[in-house]
Amino acid sequence: MKLKAKWLPAKKLSAAPGRDQLEDYAGRMGMSLELAEKWLAPNLED
């Protein structure tokens, strides 16, 4: 039996009620807020 990978779309990160998710991620990854925002731009809601 051959298994096939199935990719699921990533859930968008919410900007409301603030940027707490983005700030938390940047802090955990040890990167600046600007860099985290650049990397995650396709997954951020406007």
Defining key terms:
single chain; 46 residues; mainly alpha; 2 helices; 39% helix
Summarize the structure.
With 46 residues, this protein is mostly helical. The chain contains two helices and no strands. It has one domain.
Can you describe what's shown?
The longest helix has 10 residues, at 20-29. This protein has one domain (14-46). The radius of gyration is 14 Å and the shape is elongated. Helix 1 (20-29) crosses helix 2 (33-40). With 46 residues, it is mainly alpha-helical. 39% of the residues lie in helices and 0% in strands.
Globally, the shape reads: elongated
Please trace the helix and strand order, writing H or E for each element: HH
Helix/strand-derived class? mainly alpha
| Helical stretch tally | 2
Provide the domain count: 1
Number of strands: 0
- Determine the fraction of residues in helical runs and give it as a percent range: 25-40%
The radius of gyration computed from the alpha-carbon positions, rounded to a whole number of angstroms, is 14 Å
Unreliable residue stretches = none
What is the averaged pLDDT score? 76
Tell me about the biggest sheet? Answer: none
What share of the residues does DSSP label as strand, in percent? Answer: under 5%
Measure the end-to-end span.
Answer: 43 Å
